[in-house]
Every structure is written in C-alpha cells, then in structure tokens.
Design brief:
The chain has about 140 residues and is an all-alpha fold. It contains 9 helices and no strands. The protein is elongated.
C-alpha cells in the first residue's frame, strides 16, 4: 500500500470537510485490517484526523527508496506495446519518486532526456539524436 498516495487522495476527498470532523471519515475509508491494527494500539474511535495520520505514519512508515527508484528511472525504456504518452507518464511518476526535492523544471528535463534515450523505436531515437526536439510534448508528437 502506498500510504502517501492514499493520504493525498483522502485529503482531496475530504477537502471541504473541516479538519476536526474528518476523523470518522478517514477511519471509514480504511480497510478492516488497518482499522483493527489502529484499534489494537488503543486509538479511540473518536480520534481526530491528526492523531489518525500520526498513528498511520508510525505503523506504516514510508521507506526511502530513492536509490532504487533512481536505478529504475535510469533503466526505464519504452515497453513493447506501450504508447509514447504512457511511457512519458510512467517516467513522470518515476522521476517524482526518485528525485522528490528538485524543482519541476529539473524533473521535466530529466524526463525529457530519459524519454529521448528510451523511446522504443530505433529510427525515432536516431532522428532525435540528429534533430533533438524542443521539449517533451514535441518529442511525444514526433515519436
């Protein structure tokens, strides 16, 4: 389970509900197993959102897998049958995991460079070497 992603989805879902009223909603969205684990830690069923998030973070820590994500990113190539748009989107996901701190422009540049090197069609890759596209959207259009 990807707790940070799930938390982000829940926070978007509950955005219009005051924070002090979100606790029961969060608990109702958890799987039965996770609810049982929380209650085994004596977290009250009336706990507020902050207490629930803190306990979830404590029970399900997110491992820092940047090194593995970077290896995956740098080795990622377009898969057989994968569209260029899907390939670019997967690179965006991987770069966000592998390099969470740099600004968006830096991440976009990394995705662009990896896309040019990893696109599946050999003739397209050669064309990109001879005449590099201006940006990722242009590269996707040309691929």
């Amino acid at each position: 389970t990807n707790l940070p992603l799930w938390r982000r989805k829940v926070e978007l879902y509950l955005a219009n509900i005051p924070t002090d009223l979100q606790g029961p909603y969060i608990l109702s969205l958890l799987s039965d197993n996770v609810q049982e684990v929380l209650w085994a830690t004596d977290l009250p069923t009336t706990a507020r959102a902050g207490a629930i998030w803190n306990k979830l973070d404590e029970l399900y820590p997110v491992l820092d897998d940047r090194a593995e994500s970077r290896t995956t990113f740098w080795n990622r190539r377009q898969l057989l049958g994968e569209t260029v748009k899907s390939y670019a989107n997967q690179l965006r996901v991987l770069v966000a995991r592998a390099f969470p701190d740099p600004p968006k422009d830096t991440k976009d540049l990394l995705v662009f460079e990896r896309f040019l090197e990893g696109v599946g069609d050999l003739s397209t890759r050669r064309r990109f070497i001879q005449e590099p596209p201006a940006d990722l959207s242009c590269a996707i259009r040309l691929a």
